[in-house]
Amino acid sequence: MTLIPKTIAEAKKMLEAKQISALELTNIFISRIEKFDSDLGTYTQTCFDEARIAAKKLDESGDFSAPLAGIPYSLKDVVSKKGLKNTAGSKMLEHYEAPYDATVAEVLENAGAILLGKVNTDEFTQGSSCENSALQLTRNPWNLDKVPGGSSGGSAASIAKYLGLFSIGTDTGGSIRQPANFCGVTGLKVSYGRVSRSGIISYASSFDSIGPIAPTVDCTARVLEVIAGNDKKDATTPEIAVDAYSSLLETGADLSGKKIGVIKEFVEAEGFDVELKQSFENTVQQLESLGAEIVEISLPLTRYAIPTYYLLVKAEASTNLARYDGIRFGETATVSNLKDQYTKTRSEFLGPEVKRAIMMGTYTLSAGYFDAYYVKAAKVRTLIKEEYEKAFATVDAIVAPVTPFPAFNIGEKTSDPLAMYLADIFTVTANLAGICGLSLPTEKVHDLPAGVQILGKAFNEAEILQIGSVLEKSYGFTEIREKEMI
Ligand code: GLN
């Protein structure tokens, strides 16, 4: 049996000790993709030849000192990588090739990571189940009848099945944390501006964030310290120092001295699955037994979160999608006049959720409705942000559920967009407030992975990674995943 390194640290140790070559490691993951991905549908395209060449080059140099030297990974199919297609899960961009590297792809290459390919996403990252991808269906590796979550469903499902050691996802309203939760892996939504968005196809520019999905908190921290930081190409990335996140995760430390908040309105949310709620309450107790002080906090504006979020993101999306007019990017319908070119291109090559975004967004931004909808929602967003800032003046972090229900059946919610939107009730506030959140698995409920998110103050990723790491060790979900997925 081939020995599969299950974490970045394990792989790094083996590579440095020359117990395995970078090429052998790359080939292990390539064979797993070849063996398992026909059932899962996570990869939209692969670049195995290039991966092997890069691995061989590393082996020849013998130098594995770069932080991610030889570590195989994937990019969500909205992150530009020169020479590879950047489809955004859309028919519109099915044949579009990225002309340059996104900053995140460039820094990962400089850190020695080996790219295996691109992974599936809901179209233009709009969705919560990956079913909005116009290109292929991705399944949850724990139960093939279930969705993997979305929109970074390809990232989460592939990492759960060890088809790479980390993946880069995006989170606009939960798209890293929710699929990570449905697939039993770790996902980090960084603070707005912590990681450069340059070269990533946008959904809603004032909400989008880029982050890792990986097997463990330590893997997540190792990737974050490489990709975080100021980038001249993205004016929203401040020059705030990047911590050595992974070395801050002391093994065996407890949580004494930490004050962790529990949001009353989340626990009382309508439609919160009874067993998941019980599991969440057990985790709160677990945090307490690890030494944390638990404080109940009230964030009454939570009830406005979903409408505020969807009003604003669809407005931003409608402006971002305006460029897909059949002239500059992607496909063009065959027509005889310019007006038809715009309308036919959009109606032929964009899917239903994206069209909904254009209609909702254009409506709320139009004269006469702008003040009543967009401006009002923008004001509520500020109030929500302030509510979180106030909360973080009294607690170090917040523990919260990630989803109100476990991974659902494929097809179950596709005809009911509102039911799909409600899946995001616990995740969207972090994006409205610009704070960071770490989603991690704890146990199995309904025979599927369940977990929590730890929310932290903006630019305090170190805090939530530390708390997450202690909690992760106390649960040992990693062993369950290794046993079932390898
Ligand atoms: N499901 C949410 C939406 O469609 C979140 C998507 C995301 O985070 N990219 O807006």
Describe it.
The chain is an alpha/beta fold. It has a single domain, classed as Amidase signature (AS) domain (Amidase signature (AS) enzymes, Alpha-Beta Complex). Helices cover 40% and strands 13% of the residues. It has 17 helices and 11 strands. Strand 2, helix 4 and strand 3 form a beta-alpha-beta unit. The longest helix has 23 residues. The chain is globular. The protein binds glutamine. The site of glutamine (GLN) has 14 residues, from strand 4.
Give the percentage of residues in beta strands.
Answer: 5-15%
In DSSP terms (H or I, runs of 4 or more residues), the helix count works out at 17
| Broad structural category | alpha/beta
CATH architecture label name: Alpha-Beta Complex
The distinct ligands, each listed once, are: glutamine
Measured distance between first and last alpha carbons: 11 Å
**Number of distinct beta strands:** 11
Segments where pLDDT lies below 50 for 5+ residues? none
Give the topology, please:
Layout: H1 8-16, H2 22-40, E1 43-46, H3 48-61, E2 72-76, H4 103-110, E3 114-119, H5 153-160, E4 166-171, H6 177-183, E5 186-189, E6 209-214, H7 217-227, E7 259-263, H8 264-267, H9 274-289, E8 293-297, H10 305-320, H11 338-349, H12 352-364, H13 370-392, E9 397-401, H14 417-422, H15 428-433, E10 436-445, E11 448-456, H16 461-475, H17 477-485
Parallel strand pairs: 2-3, 2-4, 7-8, 7-9
Antiparallel strand pairs: 1-3, 4-6, 5-6, 5-10, 9-11, 10-11
Helix pairs in contact: 2-3, 5-6, 7-16, 10-12, 10-13
This protein binds glutamine (GLN).
